[in-house]
Amino acid sequence: MILSYYDRPSSIWRCLAITLLTITLVGCSEDKTPWQLHSEQGTTLMEQGKFPEAEQELNAALELAEKFEGPDPRLTQSITNLAILHNAKGEPEQAEALLQKAVAIQEQGPKPQSAELAASLSNLGALYVTQKKFDQAQASFERALAVREQALGPDDPEVIRDLENLAALFVRQSQYAQAEPYLKRVLDSRERTTGTEAPELIEPLNNLALLHRAQEQYDQAEALLLRALAIKEKQ
Length: 235
Fold this sequence. Notes:
With 235 residues, this protein is an all-alpha fold. Helix content is 74%, strand content 0%.
């Protein structure tokens, strides 16, 4: 999350959509399997805006994934890729149904509290934001945060992204007081992992300062900006 999110709500919107548009292929190697080939070709075609051809490739990947034995992450990845395609085509209802299916499959798997489940929940939350279903988005993001914290620890970059997503969600609704605890947690985490004068603190300090400014808490905003400036001047 960057400084301008609080000045331009549309930037927050784009931030939340980034999670939904992230595509991670599983098990890449030099000798690519048919599933990988269909998946990669489908995502490439989608990026080129060739949606009918992309859908054909991604459906072929899904058909292959449905035949894999046992719980296999390629199945939920195939479903997610199709959900992203439907969202890109302006079909959010189909995308929502697919993402809910991905979450349900992972919940029933051998590791129901996995980082993969958290990724699906984040994707679903991002989709809910585009639909202005903010309560559902909050529930999905909060659950993703809880799962990732348990699986990865409180200072993992993915946990930080969940915190920023929740903060951005509340800022999108002008609920600044609700956003503040999440941005404070981002700052606390950066201080633990980088120290109290590291350049990595500049962004969370600025974001928190802008949040205080939006609430007309100018003294708190000034103190945070001065701290960020002091760190910048030492670089």
